Amino acid sequence: MSNVPQELKYTKSHEWVLAGDDGQVTIGITDHAQELLGDMVFIELPEIDKELAAGDECSVVESVKAASDVYAPIAGTVIAVNENLADTPELINEDPYGEGWMFRLQIADVNELDGLMDAEAYEAIEAEE
Amino acid sequence: MTAKQTPLYQQHIDAGAKIVDFSGWQMPIHYGSQLEEHHAVRQSAGVFDVSHMNVVDLHGSGGKAFLRYLLANDVDKLKTPGKALYSCMLTDDGGVIDDLIVYYMNEDWYRIILNAGTHDKDMKWINSQLPDFPDISLNERPELAMLAIQGPQAIEKFSSLLSDENAGRLAELAVFQAYEIDGMFIGRTGYTGEDGVEVILPGDKAAELWKQLMTVAVKPIGLGARDTLRLEAGMALYGLDMDETTSPLVSGLGWTVAWQPEERDFIGRAALQTAKQNGLEQRMVGLLLTGRGVLRSHQQVQFTDGSSGEITSGSYSPTLARSIALARVPASVKIGDSCEVDIRGRMISAVVVKYPFVRNGKSLIETEQT
User: Quick check: A45 pLDDT over 80?
Assistant: First the structure.
């Protein structure tokens, strides 16, 4: 079974969201997603200051096996990206919820976070696959 | 249809395999990390379950005449018992029905190893050609399992499990040569660009050999690494690099077509000769991505003169830590030419290189071409 931390929010497309106190959120892909894709070899990250709408394709994670889009779980402006992924994309495999984080958004509306799934709901999605 | 399992299915599960459907077979794609498995084969030794492949025995005195007609390469080149030959099996139009290895065991016995994904059409085709040839019986051997043991330490490790007599035979075994002993058919062949053997044995004996290999630190390797290993080795994959719509001459497989002797008629010969006389418009080359990203099948390749080609198979090369591909391009393209590949809507720089990219653990690219 893959790891689904309780404190995070999730999307159907297998992104996780960590909400900070200041309207900033950190985003990555789930343990389940990295397991499905296998060894990461190339990560394309969004540009700083880019404004994203919820559901925008904003990043690509590419494993030996396949490329997969990553979608913005929530609307916001890109304020940071994980530069370490350029040389060590395997951080996503090794630590998907920690060192393998992908980008940070300054979100416009914190209420939008309520539209995301909690850990229990995401586990149910995983179980269906 | 229920997916088939090889006699080693339980071993895969026990080794933590992620199982996928491959041409109707439940096969291991990896056992945790495709990259680590790839490196294990380049640096030490790994074992692949390739029992899904189709082993066919041809018995009878008519085998040679039949195969000389059926295959584009010429089995008459095989003079030493056990010697193997790689060949394409063509349509009348010169398209590739499948690629295969044929072993000449003796005058009355040839063994052919065909792909799993093409099983039904291969057998239909072979059987349809058979009535014109006397003194042959065709026997599929689904009860046999096949293990590929590959890597610089593969033969040493495998040898340590064998009887003295068997180990002695193995030590003398030439490349592309096979022998039979102790119920095992052992060929010094593979699909990785490393030294090693492919072992065919009864399915009910396969798990025992697998377990013994684990005790001498031979790592289980999935189909994922099999693909990156063969791509680095510049070996064509049926269905991607060639199929019934492409001839071996535009698939980097012209060397497998035996034109001599001229009087040998084989299926597809006339079509290939016409294509050759008219001048081949395309050829297969290697590509090395210089920009960032990963090359994949069907991506378009643009050259500076406006001509274009297409990637037939591409991936990330774990040995080179860059992306590589095989591509079918205009015949005018030269080694060293630069080009751009359309990767998901962006044009990324690449360079045309000779392949294979890697042999016996060593890159053939950095020193010679970049």
Answer: yes
Provide the residue range defining the domain that includes A25: 9-121
Q: How confident is the model at residue B52 (pLDDT cuts 50, 70, 90)?
A: very high
Contact B57, B151 (CB under 8 A): no
pTM assigned to the model: 0.93
Instruction: Give residue B1's pLDDT.
Output: 61
Sign of CA dihedral B198, B204, B207, B213: negative
How many separate domains does chain A show? 1
Contacts of A41 in chain B (CB under 8 A): 35, 294, 316, 323
The phi-psi region of residue B118 (left if phi > 0; otherwise alpha if psi is between -120 and 50; otherwise beta) is alpha
**CB-nearest partner of B293 from A42, A64, A65:** A42
Contact: B344, A64; criterion CB under 8 Å: no
Residue B166 in contact with residue B110, Cβ under 8 Å?
Answer: no
Q: Where are the extended beta strands (E) located within B155-195?
A: 178-181, 184-187
Is residue A128 assigned to a domain? no
In a domain, A56, yes or no: yes
Distance from CA of A1 to the nearest CA of B (A): 13
Task: Supply the CATH number for residue A109's domain.
Answer: 2.40.50.100
Domains of chain B: 9-52+143-232 (3.30.1360.120), 281-369 (2.40.30.110)
Q: What is the pLDDT of residue B367?
A: 47
Q: Are B346 and B300 in contact (CB under 8 A)?
A: no
